[in-house]
Amino acid sequence: MKPASSKHDQNKTQKSKATTPADRQVFQHVANRPMGLAILWCLVNALIWCQLFLPAESVGQGDLVLIHSCWFAVLAIVGWGIFKLSNRTLIFDGIDLFLGLLCAGPVVSFVSMWMTGGELRTGLFFVWSWFTTAITVLLMRRLIPLFSIKLPVVIVLSTALVMSFLGIYQHFYFYASAEAEVLPLIENYQTAVQSLEPSNDSEFARQRALEKISALERELSRMGIPREPHAQLMFVQRLRDSREPFGFFALANTLGGFLALALVLMMGVVIYRAVDSSARIQFAISIIVWFILAYCLMLTKSRTAWVGSFVCLTGLLIFHIGRVKYTGFTLVKYLGAGFILILIIVGIAFWTGSLDVQVVLESNKSLAYRLDYWKSSWDMLQHHAVFGAGPGNFRQHYLEYKLPRSSEEILDPHNLWFDAWSNGGLLSLLGLVGLFISGGLSFLRENPIANQVQSLELIPSTQNVIIISALSVVFSGLLVPPETVRYIEVTGFWVVAMILASLLINWLVKQWRIPDSVLLWAACSMVIHLHGAGGFSMPIILQLVLIFAISTRPICPTFRVNSRVAGLLMLGAGLVMLGMSIPGVIRPRLAESVALSKLPQTQSTSAYRRTIQEWIAVDGWNPNPWFQLSNQLQQESKQSKDAEKLLEACQMLEQAISRDPAGYQYFGELAACQFEHFQRTGSKQSLEAALQFQEKAVNRYPTKPELLVQLADYYSQAERLVSAKNTAEEALRLDQINHQFGHSDRYLDEDQLKMLREIVESAGSLPTSSAN
């Protein structure tokens, strides 16, 4: 039974039949699109959606710099086209202004960080991503009214469907097979390292052992397995205990947020097909696709994504029911079917063991963790209120304020507003607030012409769907660092899978008039998710939100710019930024890839140093090559018994610290290097230096027990017994807190606990005045 249309809908239909002269002008402009504009539309979409096939979390490592740099070429092409071909005045509105503020904040914050100190290399990668986001959304706001939002909807839903199948495979098969492959590799590596340390073998045997270790390290690096013992232990524990799918992302939580948005979009398809009696097969298949997306979302165990999808699905249904008058039987039928479908999904998840009661019962614990993150982030941002912590530099500053009971060393504050504040200071925070307000006002404002454009029956052509689906996968493999390029057969598989999925979704949305409410509810689901999860600083996540939230909003002529002037500025800016990309981000990132692939294969110390120096010459802001060189010098010092090489290693670590002055790791490494020099030579100066650098490491991360253990040991060696006792007691207190809250990955081992107790006992009877 079809629902009876309300008078409001009938009036709206009548209005749509009588087009005004302005409407006819819009139709004619859409119909007469030049071929170059259609090619640009395909290129822009492929560059946006190819990011869905890469780990969005790797922007800080520079894995997306090639994609980001391509956008400057796009900007130059668009500027040239506007300069040569357009005679219209370009218009901008409040949404454009606040988007500019949001994306300009990280640039200003980066300049501040450059002047005061920070990890500039990561910051620059993030700045490039924010430039990309501004260009992407500004361009899509102009292109979508000319082409239709349906193509982005088709590609996003197709990717979500492919990723859901991949996620289900990961949940049931990937982890078990990965564990079987990874554990023997880690055991072989650990055995090889242990056999090398006390070895009295010949130099030939030692060299063969080093070659074996290098080969194993290359394999570990290829599989993304850390080499540090504690990090390896945590990796194995996560591999054994986790079963959450992550799709093409790196984290299940990110996949959950993406699926929440896709689930709401798919519900728009289901709602439309539910009232179309001539398309029952499409309706049934739409239900199946929605079921697959919902089931994979359930497997991610992302509670924030669950909340976002539930709230927005409910809101969408209520909004739809309020606009269309259903008969009582039809209403009960559809709502009952939806409720039963959700029960089936949950039942299957419990029956297969993919979900358990603990996931639900521990929701309060997950919320408590986030409250701790937010409290520490708030305290940190009070000391960096104007410019924030700097793009990509949140963790370095956050650890100083991390609560003792909090376990994770998070990379972002897990909150939309704090994330904007941390990345771009007050400027980005103002931009985010302005976007919410201006976008909301735009939605409430009546605009018949915009509604007419929005309801156009512009179905994406099969040719465009196939081209963009294939290019998205291909670009994701080509525009990445060499070590992450996919094999041809893997790329071919995902191209075929993506084309099939997109053709299916394109068939399902055929003749579907997309109401703005579906797009806004989809964007809202991601926004709700981002209030308790990371992702705001990931380009594709923010672009998804903005494209579906504001790209269909009409552009009110608030600012006007002459087209030739604007085109010339865009052309110049695009070419300048593209030229800056080559020495600024592309060559440094590729130099890192080359160096990391060559270092394990070097056969001599001179070749190793030469490779490092070549890396440093291109990638000057990166602290990692200096750290690698320091490790090499320390290894040479152990083999040659030359203590002077330790001092040279310390100088290399000081170079690393100058490139990452807010982090604690390099200070701890430098303290350990100085302490080893003291143990070999008895130099009191080296012991004092070790104390100073370890104190700086502790100041930057005061709740890490391992740092306090080392500091207590150094104090004890320097015979500063009261300081040693106080530090040891603090380490023991933090260890008790970790046991109390069940942070097993942070427990101190028995040797460390024994040493701390001995320090406390030995200093217990000494008077305070004589201890230091």
Could you explain the architecture of this structure?
- This protein has a two-stranded antiparallel sheet with strand order 1-2.
- The protein is 75% helix and 1% strand.
- With 772 residues, it is mainly alpha-helical.
- It is globular and about 85 Å long.
- The chain starts with 6 loop residues before the first helix and ends with a helix.
- The protein is built from 32 helices and 2 strands.
Gap between N and C termini, in Å?
A: 88 Å
Q: How many beta-strand runs?
A: 2
Strand content: under 5%
Query: What's the number of helices?
Result: 32
Give a short account of the largest sheet: 2 strands, antiparallel
pLDDT < 50 runs, ≥5 residues:
1-31, 447-458, 768-772
Task: Kindly report the average pLDDT value.
Answer: 84
Radius of gyration: 29 Å
- Read across the widest sheet, the strand sequence of neighbours is 1-2
In helices, the fraction of residues equals over 70%
Shape: globular
Label the structural class. Answer: mainly alpha
How are the secondary structure elements laid out?
Elements: H1 7-17, H2 21-31, H3 35-49, H4 65-85, E1 90-92, H5 94-116, H6 120-147, H7 150-196, H8 203-222, H9 229-241, H10 252-274, H11 280-300, H12 303-323, H13 328-351, H14 357-361, H15 363-382, H16 394-398, H17 416-444, H18 448-454, H19 462-478, H20 488-508, H21 516-530, H22 539-550, E2 559-561, H23 563-598, H24 605-618, H25 624-640, H26 644-659, H27 665-681, H28 684-700, H29 705-717, H30 721-740, H31 750-763, H32 768-771
